[in-house]
Amino acid sequence: METKVIRITSAPLSEQLVLPGQIIASGGLVVFPTETVYGLGGNALNPASSKKIYAAKGRPSDNPLIVHVARPEDAEELAFTVPSFYELAQAFMPGPLTVILKKKDIVPSETSGGLDTVAIRCPANPVAHALIECAGVPIAAPSANLSGKPSPTSAQDVLEDMSGRVDCIIDGGPSDIGLESTIVSLAGDVPVLLRPGGITYDALLCVLPGLEIAHAVTHEIGIHEKALSPGMKYRHYAPSKPLILLKGPEEKILSFLKQKQLSEKCAILCYSEELSQLNGERLYDIGRGSDLETQAHRLFSSIRMADRSDAAVIYAHLPILDGLGLALYNRLIRAAAHTVIEL
Ligand code: AMP
Ligand code: MG
């Protein structure tokens, strides 16, 4: 398949997105930018489109897709909304939040991964918003990476994974946030945070005081445990080289890394303030230790770069669990298959 690449210019989006809108409406696949990461989109109401998405990603078909709508009210057509959905929408939509609700029959089981629930998101990125309008249908879209690889945060990353597998890629520049959306389930008796992201747990608590955090956000899923979100059980965000996380006082981490640089071919996702103290080879600056936003922005691209290097192993800091740190922790701990060295 030949993949058309469209670079967004200053011309009106409604003109630039006519073709990608038609591709989605007629059953094709379009990769598009969102404020979180790039999404691999198809018509959410067309079972054949969802099947194509799974095939393009190489993703297991029981892992459901997120359905993107232009306005929170558009969820009415797809799901049984509850008052707390609109409270969340008022506070955080459009934005990097996905909400799980009981689905209506119009959503094919191919899109919901066979579940009786559906994930709804209303993206803030103007290109994503305009694409949904041009397509005239809700857009089902997982992250536009090959299954198991880190999510793409630039059109370059997307080309690496999806060239020849989709009809069109829209290049809208680097993703603002760089981590996938926060996922909250309102489909059960109590609201549950299934995946931390750009909207933090503390911000959500202001709207949903009883919000629980799913065990799997910070822990490995046991073999007998049922995953609340199918995506939790798959190895995810993973580089092909082993990734090891380091926990402990900064001086100990630095001396560990200096010693490793002498004895093995390692790549390091380091803090900006560590740059001058380490050998510059295979060193990836993910931002200052206190700057979680920059770390989120650079995390996946740094993992991809480290993975492309000739390193045998990758080291990174174990993030703190506060604020955006919870989302960084969740992605890194899974990319590292829970391998942590405590110093
Ligand atoms: P991605 O599209 O790559 O960001 O992944 C979407 C995530 O949303 C996956 O981890 C899915 O398991 C999760 N998800 C989508 N729909 C549902 C749902 N109905 N219930 C629970 N989790 C969902
Ligand atoms: Mg994904």
Bound molecules: adenosine monophosphate, magnesium ion
User: What is the CATH C level class of the largest domain, in words?
Assistant: Alpha Beta
Order of helices and strands: EHHEEHEEHEEHEHEEEHEEHEEHEHE
CATH topology of the largest domain: DHBP synthase
User: Helical region count?
Assistant: 10
Q: Report the β-strand fraction as a percent range.
A: 15-25%
Q: Kindly state the number of beta strands.
A: 17
CATH superfamily of the largest domain: DHBP synthase
Radius of gyration over alpha carbons? 20 Å
Tell me which CATH architecture of the largest domain applies here.
Answer: Alpha-Beta Complex
Shape: globular
State the helical fraction: 25-40%
Mean pLDDT: 94
- Indicate how many domains the architecture comprises: 2
Described by strand count, sense and barrel closure, the largest sheet is:
12 strands, mixed
Distance between the termini: 50 Å
Low-confidence stretches: none
Structural class: alpha/beta
Q: Overview of this structure, please?
A:
With 343 residues, the chain is of the alpha/beta class. It folds into two domains: 4-178, DHBP synthase; 243-342, Rossmann fold. 29% of the residues lie in helices and 19% in strands. The chain contains ten helices and 17 strands. The chain has helices at residues 13-16, 18-25, 47-57, 83-92, 126-135, 155-162, 201-207, 250-263, 292-308, 325-335, and strands spanning 4-7, 30-32, 39-43, 66-68, 79-80, 97-103, 117-121, 139-140, 168-171, 182-185, 192-195, 212-213, 243-247, 266-270, 283-285, 313-317, 340-342. The strands form two sheets. Strands 1, 2, 3, 4, 5, 6, 7, 8, 9, 10, 11 and 12 form a twelve-stranded mixed β-sheet that branches. A five-stranded parallel β-sheet has the order 15-14-16-13-17, with helices on both faces. A hairpin with a 6-residue loop joins strand 10 and strand 11. Helix 2 (18-25) crosses helix 5 (126-135). The model has no long low-confidence stretch (mean pLDDT 94). Adenosine monophosphate binds at residues 63-64, 66, 100, 112, 115, 117-119, 142-143, 180, 183, 194, 229-231.
